[in-house]
Structure formats: C-alpha cells, structure tokens
Amino acid sequence: MTNFREIADMPPPANTVGVVGWVRKNLISTPMNALFTFIGLYLVYLLLPPLLDWTVFSANFAGEDQTACTGTGACWVFIKARITLFMYGFYPSEEYWRMNLVFALLAATFLPQFFDAFPYKKVFGIFSVTGFPIIAYILISGGMLGLEHVETDRWGGLSLTLILSFVGIVAALPIGVVLALGRRSSMPVIRTMCIVFIELWRGVPLISVLFMASVMLPLFLPEGVTFNKLARAMIGIVMFQSAYMAEVIRGGLQAIPKGQYEAASALGLSYWKSMSFIVLPQAMKLVIPGIVNTFIALFKDTTLVLIIGLFDILGSVQSAIVDPVWRGVSTEGYVFAAMCFWVFCFSMSRYSMALERKLHTGHKR
What does residue 92 show for φ and ψ, rounded to 5 degrees? Predict the structure, then answer.
C-alpha cells in the first residue's frame, strides 16, 4: 500500500504579498497604471512641499490680531481669534454653555452608532430623533425653565449648519418614504398628488425655494400667524430634499423583485404590514448610498441660507473676512469652513459604508 506524506503549503512568492505585493497589484500592474502612478507622484512632488510650507512650516499660530502674522504662510491666528463666531454666530457669549451641551448630547447620541459592540444602540437611535430635538430646542432657544430666550436671528456659525442639517435629515427621510409609496400607489388621486409634489419641488432650484419660503410663505398664512426666518428656511429645505429623497427610495422599491410583494400578499399581510416588514427594509438597505448622498448634499446646501440673511458657518466666515482688521486672510477662513464640511461629510460617507457591510446579505454583486 502506497503511503502518502502530507507536504506543508509553500509560502507565496515574496513579491506578491506585503507592501511589495500591494504596490505591484495597485500601482504598477500594467504599463498604463505605472505611467499614471509616476504622474501622480510627480504632482505630489510639485504640490506637497509648498502646501506644507504654507499650512505648517511658515504659518503663524500664536498671537491675537493680524500683526502677529509676519510670515509668508497661513495666518491661523485669524481662526483662533474668530473661532467663537464660526462656531456660535452671534449667540450670546454668556450662553455658550447651552450650545456646548447640545453638541455634547449630539456626540453622545450619534457616536455609539459607529461601534457595533456598544450596548443600547437602538435606544440611543430612537432618542436622537425623539427626545434629543426637544431638549436641543429648549436649550438653544430658551424662554423656559429659567433660560434666557435667544432669538433665531442670533443663531449662526457651525451650530446653525448642524441645526438645519439635522432637521432636514430627520424630517426629509420619513416624508420621502411616504411620497415614494404614494407615487407607486394604485389610487390615482394619491399618485397624482405625490407626482405633482415631487416634480414641482425637483423642478426649481433651492435658492428659489428659500426666497419663496422667506418672502412668499408669510403671504399665504392667516392673519396674525407668523414664522420666523429660520423656521421658513427649514420648511423650504425639508420640502425640497424630501422630493429628492422620494425618488431615491422609489428606486429601491422598484429594485425589489415582484415575488416579494406576491409573497407578502400570500401571507395575508395588509399593505402597510407588507411594506413595513418586508418591502421597505429591503428597499432601504439597497439605497443606502443614495440616501447618504442626499444627506451630504443637504448638509452642503445649507450654505444657501446666507442669501436670506442667516449666517451659517460659511456666512460667518464671510462676515469675518470683510472686517478691515483681518484684511487679506480670506483663504484661511475658507479652508477652515471647507475642513468642517469635509469632516462631517466624510463621517457620513464612512458610516454609510460600514452600514452597507453590516447589512449585506447577498444583494451585492
């Protein structure tokens, strides 16, 4: 009888694993890839040294005013001196603790969603869209519980950007779901109303919507009923983004195989039960990239409220750079605003990717 001796697996070639293997596979796998890699490295060689010199090595970090900016690099003293304006707008300085508390609650509510092992994630998620908005409104607006009332005209900076984005995201998603279901409804009246709403709001630019919300909306309200400028901007943003959200979700609904609808009907489920427990969960999972893309667009579009007199973070930067005391430091302000937007948008993007991997159950091709 022949004896077979097991032979240990040989290690892979050294040039296919580790750093060398990654470089060969991703950077120089073909002559064309090698050419583009060389061009990219050359551009980095040309652009990176002067960029680092301007942002770090020749930059000024210490001081109180523009006289401290004596070098040829960035004047980060400007950001240091105006940071409260960029963060809080014209909110009273003695009440900053209220905004800080809201920021802390926001972080404590959403950061656990990034960690799978964190307990009570579902509870935190429900609180973020139910209890947190109420607490945040009481703290920021005041006028109750002994807190000084602060008019919305004094809200601004990054805090206003986050408020507009949060309200827009929380409100636009459920409205978009209802509109998407309505557009696919078998009832002609409901379907027509949803189509008209979606196409109307998608057919006009957000700038026009904000102008209409700020100028025209009060004309249609009953006498004695008024909304402040911030509330009108929120209404316009929510209606505008909900129309786009509806189309994203409708795409997910159309991607669900017809057999899923037939299976729900065979089980005797009502329309709302089949949508809630079978169809919508699958559709929402399929369109996570589209939903997050709409959220990111909403977050960036909040800068347009500047045209109706609301000073978000970009508006606060623009109001600061026109100050004669800080003449010539506009680049630093815009870089700071861009980095703030990038941090939040990149965080949403990474979270959506993690959510896709977690919910992946075979749809990915």
Answer: -55, 135
Residue 17, SS3?
coil
| Three-class SS state of 54 | helix
Q: What is the pLDDT of residue 22?
A: 80
Cα–Cα distance between 162 and 140 in angstroms, integer?
12
C-alpha triplet 278, 280, 282: angle, nearest 5°:
70
User: Under a CB-based contact definition with an 8 Å cutoff, are residues 334 and 317 in contact?
Assistant: yes
Give the pLDDT band of residue 177 (cuts 50, 70, 90).
Answer: very high
Is the pTM here over 0.85, yes or no?
A: no
pLDDT bracket for residue 245 (50, 70, 90): very high
Neighbouring residues of 54: CB distance < 8 A, sequence distance ≥ 6: 72, 73, 74
Q: How far apart are CA 201 and CA 239, in angstroms?
A: 7
What does 308-351 look like in DSSP terms, one character per residue? GT--BHHHHHHHHHTSGGGTT-HHHHHHHHHHHHHHHHHHHHHH
Q: Fill in the amino acid letter for 129.
A: V
3-state secondary structure 270-318: CHHHHHHHHHHHHHHHHCHHHHHHHHHHHHHHHHHHHHHCCCEHHHHHH
Contact present, 66 and 78 (Cβ < 8 Å):
yes
Digit-coded pLDDT (tens) for 81-118: 889 989 998 899 898 999 999 999 888 888 877 777 77
Domains located in the chain, CATH noted: 76-91+156-359 (1.10.3720.10), 94-149 (no CATH)
Strand partners, 312: 157
DSSP string, 133-172: HHHHHHHHH-SSTTPPP--GGG--HHHHHHHHHHHHHHHH
